[in-house]
Design goal:
alpha+beta; 4-stranded antiparallel beta sheet; 5 helices; Aminopeptidase; globular
Length: 99
Amino acid sequence: MDRKIYKANYEDLQEILRLQYLSYQSEADLFGSRDIPPLKQTLDEIISEFQEGIILKMLDDDGNIIGSVRAKEDSGTVYTGKLMVHPQHRRQGYGAKLF
């Protein structure tokens, strides 16, 4: 299914943070520890990222956020970070589309 990508709103940040906590569990499993930055990030920190750059979201048919990526520009270079796709929606090309 072709999913659309939108610029996230301030009101989306809590849902994106919940998605982040869920999505990064598999990475934490690889490291054998929950002590990784994406699982420790706070709402205040994501608000700061929102204010300094752009956060994109991908929605399912019901309007739920199933993917997200963050980016910011500095001196002509775009830096991307925290690319995530809901575990139930992985392996469908959504991560590549978000990137």
